[in-house]
Write a structure and sequence with these properties.
The chain is mainly β and about 900 residues long. It has a 22-stranded antiparallel barrel. A hairpin with a 5-residue loop joins strand 23 and strand 24. The N terminus is likely disordered.
């Protein structure tokens, strides 16, 4: 009888246990959107589990009425965990996304980088980077490949042998511009992009997709933050104040506001020209997002910038040369310079999502810049040779004077430019599993530029102007003396007004393929008992191939030219695996190839030559890109690192030659050159110190051009020697030789560039009760660039083959956290503002730590013998800055 009762009880218990279950169903995809086959779905700490089918689908019975941990795993993906609690006899369907086991330094879900090698980057907060002028552009040189900068006062940058005008810059899909008249970094003011408002960027150094515009070198695509909550940042230092506020008052509405004010008089005091600097740079920006409904969002954006620069120069002393010839250039000034750039921009954008697969954008923007550059500067200079004898008591003092002279500079330059456009872009994900992405766009743009230039320069190297008129003292009749002209060293007077229209459009499609294969992995490893065991693993995996092909068209009514730009790229990700810490990881190795035609129809500055004359027959410059690159992630010190390498070649035709003077680009206004650029770029980033990212980049470049119609003559004396003005004693020419220079270095030909941004912090293990060492941090910014070409003033580009000095700079910042997540806030009073501060720290920054005088450009003078001297204009020397940062 007892046995019967026990059997009945066990049968009832079994029935109850069987009834206490629920059903879990789901679909597993990878981060590319493809189904994951043979993924393991298991109830933690049990033998209950299943695997997904070829459609990524699974069904699993799980215990009911209790919290259950579900583990979804696959060899090549990060493990995913779900916590569920379901009533008995119920079911639930879930969708799981598995991410590849790899170093994802950049959040690739926020933007679509495509297949052409666009680098996705979440910028480091500018408050964490020791830089005289904090901006996003200064982060490109270490966070991206192929970017160089040689002026800490400017936001300008060069990419793979191109100048700054060859770079596309977008802000929330709107193309932006910088001041046209700026000739030095001091005048330029702040960058258009407010670095405190930036959420992420995409960057390509070449081979970019057809969705981006018509420039020869690169594209920088910046997206501002889309606020989800309140946040604010305030930064104050010796050079200015930056304030940023964001909030989301309601589900439908959010906003960003940014204000920047800088007065860099303290920084400019480190330049070689001393005087009364009075710069004042102001920038105000705001963006508002409002969701009209669940599918439509309205965005309004506005900005106003007023950059004023005034200097009353007093004197300058520059020492340069070598141990064999040490020289000193001393100048005393009179006069002043006043420069002002006022820029305003407004934009409205509507984003509509009719369904999950289709996005439509409609954008309109206006841009206006009003610029003036007025100066009258008189300089009286002396050129001295210094004593070079180390044993002399006068070592380093003036040995003798080589010459004295003077110069007078005058400018009354004004420019007013207006740009208005309307733009539509669409994105459609289609096909099986939405592996195809079709994009299209069309844009109309109107441009008007009014430009008035009046500038001249007179150099009197001998303190005796030539031609010098006969003494006229005592003359009564003014006509008794012949008219004498005053020859200026340089003069330019022009007035132009240009109005034009552009129509552009593009279409491109990206297609993805998944190639499945079985992967068999055999390895030996040590188990927990230190015994060598054999691991034999077989699983299904996939290779991924993505290709993009597209074409752009651009029509400009100024010259009636239409250009078509086909572009294509392919991205291949093989199935390679390795074992780390007894777990299988997929090697994130990606290979990519990109090519295409890249035209750059001129903007206003390219169509105006050195004489200020507009060329109505100017044509678009052309470049054909060939780019091969790879990305590879790996483990080092149990931390992940990412290596990027690219090799490229650019074939240049219909090039417009130009000269670079400081930051001003002066074009020849003719398509009379061809050229090339080739090189290799490398970048490594990762956590050299655990928890914080550091970057290093290395670039090699060679870029040259051949101006098709240039030539010059060499003259020889009776001794058969080449006559060099100012050096050759016998300067009577008896013979000549015509020379066609051929290929010469382009102004941006910088063979080697290296950049390093390194972050370090004290370990928490060093903390004591008295000193929290972990609140101390160090940031190091290091730059090195090889010599750039330059030459004497004039229109002869073939003379610009002299090499300048190396660019070397180290900036360092030391910071101490005052308030942070671990701060004991009980010591603050309830009403104290400190309770509202999330983070606060103070930084001591040393700019140009090694006090190296880097050269930005050269002045030229001539002595009485006709010998020319190039006087280097140097950038800022060492400066110390104190900065306070508060984050709310």
């Amino acid at each position: 009888m007892r046995i019967i009762i026990l059997a009945i009880w066990l049968l009832g218990l079994h029935t109850i246990l069987i009834g206490q279950t629920a059903t879990l169903t789901g679909t597993v995809r990878n981060d590319k959107g493809y189904f994951v086959n043979s993924a393991h779905v298991q109830v933690a700490k049990t033998n209950t589990g299943t695997t997904t089918n070829e459609k990524g689908f699974f069904t699993l019975e799980i215990p009911a009425n209790e919290s259950v941990k579900i583990i979804i795993s696959s060899a090549e993906f990060e493990t995913h965990t779900e916590f569920l609690s379901l009533p008995e006899n119920t079911s639930k369907d879930i969708v799981v996304i598995l991410f590849t086991r790899t170093l994802e330094t950049f959040n690739t879900t926020a933007k679509d980088p495509g297949t052409s090698g666009m680098g996705y980057y979440k910028p480091i907060g500018p408050e964490n980077i020791p830089s005289p002028i904090p901006n996003i552009e200064s982060q490109l040189r270490f966070s991206q490949v192929g970017v160089t900068q040689n002026n800490e006062l400017s936001a300008g940058y060069n990419v793979r042998g191109g100048n700054f005008d060859e770079n596309l810059i977008y802000l929330n899909g709107i193309e932006i511009y910088r001041p046209f008249l700026a000739r030095s970094g001091q005048q330029e003011g702040m960058s258009f992009i407010n670095p405190y408002m930036v959420d992420n960027i995409l960057f390509s150094a070449g081979g970019f997709d057809a969705r981006y515009g018509d420039k020869l070198s690169s594209v920088l695509d910046v997206t501002y933050k889309d606020p989800r909550e309140f946040a604010a940042t305030a930064v104050t230092s010796f050079m200015g104040v930056n304030v940023f506020v964001q909030d989301r008052p309601s589900v439908r509405f959010n906003y960003l506001l940014g204000a920047r004010y800088q007065t860099n008089a303290y920084l400019f005091g480190a330049l070689d020209t001393k005087g009364d600097y009075k710069p004042a740079f102001l920038d105000l920006q705001g963006m508002v997002n409002y969701h009209l409904n669940e599918n439509t969002r309205l965005t309004l954006f506005g900005t106003y910038a007023d950059n004023k620069y005034r200097i009353v120069p007093e004197n300058r002393e520059t020492n340069w040369g070598s141990i064999n010839e040490a020289l000193r250039f001393t100048v005393y000034y009179e006069g002043q310079e006043i420069t002002r750039f006022r820029t305003a921009m407004g934009a409205v954008s509507i984003e509509n999502r009719p369904n999950d697969n289709l996005r439509l954008y409609f954008t309109s923007s206006i841009f206006r810049t009003v610029e003036s550059e007025h100066f009258d500067i008189l300089g009286e200079y002396r050129l001295d040779e210094l004593e070079r004898d180390l044993g002399s008591d006068d070592f380093g003092d003036v040995a003798f004077t080589r010459g004295v002279g003077g110069f007078l500079e005058h400018a009354r330059n004004d420019l007013d430019a207006f740009v208005a456009n309307g733009y539509h872009r669409g994105v459609l994900d289609w096909g099986e599993d939405f592996k195809n992405r079709l994009q299209w766009g069309v844009k109309y743009q109107h441009e008007t530029t009014n430009d008035k230039i009046s500038e001249w320069y007179m150099l009197d190297s001998a303190r005796f102007n030539a031609p010098h008129p006969t003494d006229s003292v005592g003359y009564i009749d003014a006509n008794a003396q012949a008219y004498q002209e005053l020859n200026l060293s340089y003069s330019l007077k022009s007035q132009n007004s240009v109005s034009s229209n552009r129509l552009t459009g593009f279409v491109q499609n990206r297609k993805g393929w998944e190639v499945k294969k079985m992967y068999h992995f055999v390895d030996t490893l040590l188990n927990q008992d230190s015994l060598l065991v054999l691991v034999d693993t077989t699983f299904e995996t996939s290779k991924y191939i993505n290709a993009t092909i597209g074409v752009r068209a651009h029509y400009w009514d100024f010259n009636g030219q239409t250009v078509f730009s086909p572009r294509a790229s392919i991205n291949y990700r093989p199935a390679l695996f390795f074992r780390h810490n007894n777990e299988m990881y997929r090697r994130n190795v990606t290979f990519r190839l990109a090519t295409g035609f890249y035209y750059q129809p001129p903007f206003y500055r390219e169509i105006r030559n050195l004489q200020g004359v507009i060329n109505p027959d100017i044509r678009a410059q052309q470049s054909i890109h060939f780019v091969f690159g790879t990305d590879y992630t790996f483990f080092m010190w149990d931390r992940r690192f990412k290596f990027t390498g690219e090799a490229y070649y650019k074939h240049l035709t219909n090039i417009i030659p130009y000269e670079i003077d400081n930051v001003r680009i002066r074009y020849y206004g003719e398509n009379n050159a061809k050229g090339y650029a080739t090189g290799m770029d490398f970048k490594l980033n990762g956590q050299f110190v655990k928890g914080i990212e550091s970057y290093a980049s290395l670039s090699f470049l060679r870029t040259q051009e051949d101006i098709l119609d240039d030539y010059y003559y060499n003259y020889y004396n009776s001794d058969g020697d080449l006559i060099v003005p100012g050096y050759t004693y016998n300067s009577v020419a008896v013979d000549s030789e015509k020379v066609e220079p051929g290929y010469i270095p382009r102004p941006t030909d910088q063979f080697l560039n290296f950049s390093l941004f390194f972050q370090d912090k004290m370990p928490e293990e060093w903390d004591t009760k008295k000193i929290k060492w972990s609140t101390f941090k160090v940031n190091l910014n290091l730059m090195f660039g090889s010599r750039l070409p330059y030459g004497p003033p004039g229109d002869e580009r073939y003379n610009d083959t002299i090499r300048g000095s190396f660019f070397r700079r180290v900036d360092i910042g030391f910071s101490k956290d005052i308030i942070g997540p671990k701060t004991d806030r009980t010591k603050f009073s309830e009403k104290s503002i400190l309770n509202h501060i999330d983070n606060m720290w103070i930084s001591l920054e040393v700019f140009n730590l090694l006090d190296i005088e880097n050269t930005t450009n050269y002045n030229w003078i001539t002595d009485v013998s006709g010998r020319k001297y190039s006087i280097p204009n140097t950038l800022t020397t060492r400066r110390i800055n104190l900065k306070l940062v508060m984050q709310f």
